[in-house]
UniProtKB/TrEMBL annotation:
<dbReference type="InterPro" id="IPR052542">
    <property type="entry name" value="Cholesterol_Oxidase"/>
</dbReference>
<dbReference type="GO" id="GO:0016491">
    <property type="term" value="F:oxidoreductase activity"/>
</dbReference>
<keyword id="KW-0274">FAD</keyword>
<dbReference type="InterPro" id="IPR029058">
    <property type="entry name" value="AB_hydrolase_fold"/>
</dbReference>
<keyword id="KW-0285">Flavoprotein</keyword>
<keyword id="KW-0560">Oxidoreductase</keyword>
<comment type="similarity">
    <text>Belongs to the GMC oxidoreductase family.</text>
</comment>
<protein>
    <submittedName>
        <fullName>Esterase</fullName>
    </submittedName>
</protein>
Amino acid sequence: MQPATSPARHYRERTVPFLARDGRPLNLVHVRGEQEPRKGPVVLVHGAGVRANIFRAPVEQSLVDALVADGYDVWLENWRASIDLEPTEWTLDQAAVFDHPSAIQTIVRETGRDEVKAIIHCQGSTSFMLSAVAGLVPQVKVILTNAVSLHPVVPRAAQRKLRYAVPFVSHMTPYLDPQWGISVHGITPRFITLVVKVSHHECDNLVCKLASFTYGTGHPTLWRHENLNVETHEWLKHEFAKVPLTFFQQMNACVRAGHLVPVEGYRELPEDVAERPPETDARFVFFAGERNECFLPESQRRTYEHMSRRRPGHHALHVLPGYGHLDVFMGKDAARDVFPLILAELDRPV
């Protein structure tokens, strides 16, 4: 897939390959403006079944643009869930233990800085939060998380879908793939695509509708259509692809438990990692779209309260009126409504 990005800007970009701790090849996209950055590095971590490019929607100003303009040294992490990499049946555990610590170490080595800030979204957020609270990314001092962190809460219909549909579908296919909206082959992909065509009537973009089916029960699930410009709605056709059922199986366990649950037994992630006192001194900033149909705002409230019980007044929570899940970053008015809050929180002294 060829990335489509926000209006052309004069950036210096390079791809920095690195290996996860289990040897899987990953990469970081390093973005700098014409001037040397005045501030330190900030890493952006995408969600499931997308890629680092998701932060660069074709809007007048993307989040990357805003960060570069504000003087930050911007790094975009393609972890093992990225559709720019070879598909794999990943878990949050793998990303937390193997991917994010290696990404942060690479940024520290490349920049010579010993502190990093992070903006993390959805399953990039859940997996990165596991890394953080387990003490695996001690160089990260400010973490801005969107949509969900340690306590996933989903609508009732999505709970039923996780509990009953995921086990059934996992016997038929290892992946769900919104790209079936462009090209579909095989009995199971054809059947699922037909179900989506029959049940989703919110727009004419089949990839958009398959993304809604894949990630929840909303119409749509991942954004409010009124928050997207026409170009972004078309652009997203190429920004969503395979996501493994292994992730949904783990998320089902997490939703039922009320907090993130490690499933692979890595010693770095004890069973109660999401409940015990965090092994980090980072400041956390929690963002939630008020109308998020993927993970309810209660998800972020619970983690904010969990963190604040240990360090009252240290962390922050912002519930964004009129926003959903990904439109927090790709909405046509996000540069006005959201990005100033992000920049202010990143600039706040720790």
